[in-house]
Amino acid sequence: MDEHTDWNWELFDEIVEDVEENKNIIQCIACGKCVGDCPAAKVSNFNSRKIIKKVLRGDKSVLKDSDIWHCYLCERCKRVCPKENINIPLLIINLRNESFKRGFGPRYNDLRKYVEMSERFLTQGIILEEPLGEDLPQERIDELDTICDFARIKYVFKASNEKQKAKRKRN
Amino acid sequence: MNFNTLALDLQAIEEEFPESPLDYFKEKKLCLFRACLEKYFPGVRWGFQDLLEELQLEVTTCKNQSCCSGTFFQRNLITRAQFSAINERNLSEMNQQADIAFFSCNGCYNSLLRGRDFLKTPEVRIKTQEILNTIHKKVGVERYPGIYKILENPKIKLVHDLDFLYLIRNDVLNTLKFDLRDLKVAVHYGCHYLNLSRDKKTIESYLGSKTKLEELIELFGGIPVDYQERESCCGWGASQLLINPREALKITYTKLKSAENVGADFILMPCPTCLYTLSKPEYRDNIKNWFGEKLEIPTIHLNELIAILRGCEEERCISLTRKTPRLGEIFDIITQQ
User: Fold this and answer.
1) Do B116 and B204 belong to one domain?
2) Which residues of B touch A38 (CB under 8 A)?
3) Which of A17, A22, A33, A74 to mutate to test the interface with B (most CBs of B within 10 A)?
4) Number of folded domains in chain B?
5) What is the ipTM of this complex?
6) CATH number of the structural domain A10-101
7) In chain B, % of residues over pLDDT 90
8) How confident is the model over B139-160, as pLDDT tens digits?
């Protein structure tokens, strides 16, 4: 066994501490139904059974794998799972958070598709150019901005502004 | 605090109003949740709104409602508490003006129920309330009592448009001017409708097969056709289509191809996000470039279809900018009766 596959509960404990519901993954019987019905597994290396196995073994390489970023969050796995209360989509979101925290998450370039959406959400409260109907009043937009304080959405927005400033400076 | 689901109890309404479930909604204040994707498909909003007005129901939209923020939560750009705070803010605003909120989008419906679900966890609940307190401090005034508090037993109930339309299907049928003239229709429910447990009271209703769209098609004079990819994802996959377009469009391609193979005249769905993915011309072009096949099967949202069948003006049903020759054909077959 290499250093990543030593059996320990450290990673499991961490994600359960963050989201208690994750403790249910211990019931996984590795039947593979989640993989068989998974849209992401059909087009990428995403394999929820392997991901659960890694977490239960304490294999932290799962946080570096790009695989966790390929989940479609369609919740199909939750529906076909023969065990009750295993919430794989929530586990994936949690693992992505851990991955972000340790600096393995997507870089700015991977998130550039979110720049415009983030900007519109923070400045207009919506994610498309203009809503059908009335605009959200400015006071309500300010409320959303406050809710999102210190969130990654703000860093994506800020990174895009800084990139644009640098581009303007170069030109 | 009561964190039971806010989903409208359809079974109870059916039991209480077996002859006409529509009666339950009369005298109630109704609010349409504004889904961002309705911008591209205004018929999704108008088709539904016009129907409710014809049925003499009081319907509004909520001007203080924001995007549900599901997109950002699913890509880890906001936390669970921030997501819940955004949704709690929206719920408070709607709770102030309505008894029932309608959702034309699977994603928004799922988000509002999920945000509420997260509040069952004490840590998330505490953080969410702290965030709402911060807004309160900044705003300085209270616009109405309870706006910046997690709602305890809110009166507002949430319902997906498809569930509502199915519930009052006989009243809908009475408003229709045209029928589907035996057109063959493939259905796409969308993952966040098919796989959603948050609004279900029993395990049977969660795991059982969903057939409301097929039943509506038959009622409206069409022929529902089964196909292999009926339950598969549209390809959007919580923005996977933006991040890994080639992988995601393979799913879209397989779905569209499967429906074409069984001779479906169009695909019917209850979600504008799925509609966007399955119909966007740029995606259809990419499918042709990457997988070598030009697929032209039209796609229609249930609310748009009802508007067409009710004989609404064309722009009120389907935006002219997205009208393809095949979609035009369907429109003509239905309306030139």
Assistant:
1) no
2) none
3) A74
4) 2
5) 0.93
6) 1.10.1060.10
7) 85
8) 888 888 888 999 998 999 999 9
